[in-house]
Design a protein that fits this description.
The chain is of the alpha/beta class. Helices cover 38% and strands 23% of the residues. Mean pLDDT is 81; it is low at 266-272, 440-446 and 569-582.
Length: 582
């Protein structure tokens, strides 16, 4: 009779025998090739499963059978065949669904900025809500199908974790502020630069933070990250998303990571597909990491994701505010906590108060700089602390109040969600350590307008009208072409600050046009503008010489962030001078 070892060695699927003490007894060659971490399989119980990513990018699902002597027979199942055809179908489906959705949601957004009767605005809001839900459902279903196909390939590159927290918070801030919520972030000063797939990590964090904003009705959402050295040039990063929402019942904390699962009071909600956390769990498996949920003592929920990464470069750990004191006055616990963490990460001592009255009762250091959170519901709180250098904290849509606060004696302002670099600069300026920006510089920084000459390459007339309208509202001058050949000719003959390039155009595709421009010496920043929303599409655009990637449907806030990012990246501002290599 064949032994268990003989059976395992004869299996085509990856398989291994683990004894009752957790030691690996034997494994076949396929198991070795799969590169499965034995420590994750040791505790796998009968009927349970876990997922890992093989070296070739295939997702493998592991199950265990407990033998009579207590040993475990662990067998892996890779994704099924026919994946290339499925990949092509999913890519095509993504593009075909997202393209008309871009037109529907984009035009609804433009209509919202016109004069409407109250009942018309209510109808439009319902249309937008339904469209956003449909878009989210399309994205989630396509993402989940793609992950289940097993063809997830990570593209590690040098990556700054702090930048991911900042950009995610800023992208979600319009959605949060529309609900009356705050969203903020904080990170330690000594975080290293790691090798990671930024696009996949962004997907994880965006799913977790987006869920938190969706299910939180008061307070807000705080994004964070912690690091733990693992030796041999590796570090474990634990990303957290903490909210002040209703929390998750203990009985549901594992089940909600299953596809189409919802928790407690959220069951049956029409604005939730129940797929976001399932996607997070699969992406965690792809990173040989984990995802889960904790309950903070103060209530709400804290979702987390952690994985181990190779260190590219150690963090600087600078403490530019060392020896200083910063006072934070905010009635919102998320704003207060994020500001305190950022202040302490920069080396300063931090004090926090709920109101100005509370702060006035305490003897503060003479050189303390006071950060006052604008609170439209409590006008008495929007005052400068008497005799103290104060800085007002504003939401982006409150920029119009800057002049009024300057007249009231505030030394400056900061826009929420707070950026640590801006906070440090403003505190040093308020303390007299560096020169403060002039009022005119403040006004230019506060403006939503981005003065740039843009070349828009888009063949779809509806999408072209939408993109042009959004760009012009942001302050851009726009020239539009409808093919890759026209885009190349225009870019080489005109002086543009930015090029927005659709990918699927008749004749020369967007990627081919980008390659041609780079080969011809054009150095203008090129932003991919596409309904192809998968990470592999982004990688292909970057490989073709593009600088960034913007997916449809276009969101005004995201587009403005993209414009500000690349308009300030050092490109020649003079329209008369083309950005061509000399």
């Amino acid at each position: 009779m064949a032994s268990a070892e003989d059976i395992i060695l004869a299996l085509a699927a990856p398989a291994a025998l683990i004894d009752v003490k957790g030691a690996l007894v034997c494994a076949n060659a396929t198991f070795d090739l799969a590169g499965a971490p034995v420590d994750r399989l040791v505790d796998l119980n009968e009927g349970a499963s876990c997922e890992t990513l093989a070296a070739g990018g295939a997702l493998i699902t592991w199950t265990a059978s407990v033998l009579a002597d207590g040993a475990r027979l662990v067998v892996g199942r890779a994704a099924s065949a026919g994946l290339d055809q499925r990949e092509r179908y999913l890519a095509s489906m993504s593009h075909e669904l997202r393209t008309p959705l871009n037109g529907v949601l984009g035009m609804a957004g433009l209509l919202a900025d016109t004069r409407l009767a109250a009942d018309q605005r209510a109808y439009l809001a319902t249309l937008q809500d339904c469209g956003e839900h449909l878009l989210g459902l399309v994205n989630d279903i396509l993402d989940l199908a793609r992950l289940d196909s097993g063809q997830l390939i990570l593209h590690p590159a040098p990556f700054e974790p702090k930048a991911l927290l900042q950009s995610t918070a800023e992208l979600l801030s319009p959605r949060a502020h529309a609900k009356g919520l705050e969203i903020a972030w904080a990170a330690p000063a000594d975080l290293p630069i790691v090798l990671a797939d930024e696009g996949r990590l962004r997907q994880v964090l965006f799913n977790l933070a987006g869920n938190a904003v969706k299910f939180t009705e008061a307070g807000g959402v705080l994004l964070g990250v912690e690091s733990r050295a693992r030796g041999a040039g590796q570090v474990t990063l634990r990303f957290t998303v903490t909210d002040t929402g209703p929390g998750v019942p203990e009985a549901d904390r594992e089940r909600i990571f299953d596809a189409f699962a919802q928790s407690g009071e959220h069951v049956g909600r029409s604005d939730s597909s129940g797929l976001g956390l399932a996607i997070v769990r699969r992406l965690a498996a792809a990173h040989a990491g984990a995802a889960g949920l904790d309950s903070p003592p103060a209530g709400g929920a804290c979702f987390w994701f952690e994985a181990t990464f190779a260190i590219e470069r150690a963090g600087a750990g600078a403490l530019p505010l060392s020896g200083r004191t910063v006072v934070v006055i905010s009635s919102n616990p998320i704003v207060a906590e994020a500001a305190v963490r950022q202040v302490r990460a920069a080396g300063a001592a931090a004090m926090t108060f709920n109101t100005l009255v509370d702060a006035e009762r305490v003897e503060l250091p003479d050189d303390a700089v006071v950060l006052v959170d604008h609170n439209p519901a409590r006008r008495a709180s929007n005052k400068r602390l008497a005799g103290r250098v104060s800085v007002i904290l504003l939401a982006p849509e409150q920029r119009g109040s800057i002049a009024r606060y300057r007249e009231a004696g505030f030394a400056g302002y900061l826009i929420k969600p707070l950026r640590d670099v801006s906070l440090i600069e403003r505190v040093l300026a308020a303390s007299g350590a560096v020169a403060a920006p002039s009022p005119s510089q403040d006004e230019r920084a506060a403006s939503d307008q981005v003065q740039a000459r843009v070349l828009l390459a888009e063949d779809n007339p509806v999408n072209a009208v939408l993109a042009r309208s959004l760009l012009e509202r942001a302050g851009c001058s726009v020239d539009r072409v409808a093919s890759g050949e026209e885009a190349v000719a225009a870019a080489l003959s005109g002086a543009y600050d930015l090029i927005f390039m659709d990918q699927r155009m008749p004749g020369l595709s967007g990627r081919d046009a980008a390659r041609t421009l780079r080969d011809r010496g054009c150095r203008t920043a090129i932003i991919a503008l596409t309904a192809d929303a998968f990470e592999e599409d982004r990688q292909a655009c970057l490989a073709a010489g593009m600088d960034d990637f913007l997916t449809k449907p276009l969101e005004p806030a995201t587009l403005r962030l993209m414009l500000r990012r690349w308009r300030r990246a050092g490109w020649t501002p003079d329209r008369e001078k083309a950005k061509l290599a000399s």
